[in-house]
Amino acid sequence: MRTPRIRVQLGTPEQVQADLVVLPGAHAQHRPDGRTVVIPAPRWHMPNGPEYRLADAYREAMLLANARQAHSMVLPAILARGPWPLDQVTRIGLTVLHGTPTTLREVIVVANTPAILERWAEAIARAA
Asked: Model-level pTM?
């Protein structure tokens, strides 16, 4: 088991080549392409979202990657349904991605806007 390299890029998860593509949704499901899974993802509620549920979503993604012996995984910058404060997303996401033993060599976080890409890039640089 290892700590994966984490990088961020602009786009959508479906556009990125990886062993496993993780998408947030209301219910778990496997897509017919064999590499895409939808995991239950939390919604943020004001004033404080249930942070442990967001961490659980990232843990579930890591467990799926390990179960498949995946070497690469792509997921959206916000692994939740609906908006979530970016400072919480990056802190929780990086904590789980760095702290969970895994078969992954690389995790690609895909941002759908330049602002989200910048926030993730800054968080990854600070964590290095």
From this structure: 0.91
